[in-house]
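Exercise 4. Each item below gives a protein and its sequence. For each, produce the structure-token representation.

Item: Cyclase (Streptomyces aurantiacus).
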Amino acid sequence: MTLDRTDPESEIARAAEAFGNWGRWGADDRLGTLNFLDEAKRRQGASLVRRGVSFSLSQRFDMDGPQKGWRRRTNPVHTMLDTGTDASLGLQGFPHGIGGADDVIAMPLQCSTQWDGLGHIFDHGRAWNGRDAAKTVTSDGDLVTGIEHMAPYVAGRGVLLDVGHVVGTDGELPDGFAITEEHLTATAEAHGVAVGRGDLVLVRTGRLARARREGWGEYAGGPSPGLSFTTAGWLHRTEIAAIATDTWGFEVRPNEFEHAFQPLHQVAIPNMGLLIGEMWDLDALAADCATDGVHEFWLTAAPLPITGAVGSPVNPIAVK
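Answer:
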């Protein structure tokens, strides 16, 4: 797939037409490509547990995060409501010596390891399945495709494509590196895995590892390796259920067009119905996969069932 880098509008329209899934699962669909992840696929994923070793693929949710306030996104703020000090001083008013601690967290739902819901991105005022964005997501939230509808379903066969190690240098890709279909295919072949219908695909670039080594810098929104716009056909043709990366924005940044912002999102979410994860921590899992040579595993990554949300923090768990 070649790109006219001067005409993002036309390229996005062509890709949306070629790789769209509107109506594929009926007019009332709320799950998009998660429809590919059926009971048989979950049984297949569960059968991959051999050693019982597990990995959390989430960053920690705390003030030491990547956000810098863009579009009012902040890092999580964790506050204690009751503490051990309150209990020790007898300030809680409970009988027979019992005490406790409570806490609260305030955070944008997409400030760290997260899923982009189907109501997160629109294409010319249209949400997933061709719905009117103005009537789908209002000040009351996503009235149709709120992420709560996905909560029972995100569990199945996970596949790690460690492009950073297969294609990159010292396990990392440079900023601005566009991962193509050829890179994804070559990585899958190097790992001895096939990617197909219903899979939950994880793409490691090494960008998070670099941020941890050098500091957050421009991790949130700045230059980064990521998927090329030209992978839209691969994302559609493979019929994967979801895809997640260790980067802030999933696709390569700067984007591949002049005067464009996240064009692959514009095709993948509202037109394809693809579930996209960002800022996942894939390093420990990748190290284990490299050691035992197994790049497939059971993966469960349920979003929080927050009614009407267009995204959700998540603590994905991979089990091998």
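Check: The chain has two domains: 8-71+108-319, 77-106.
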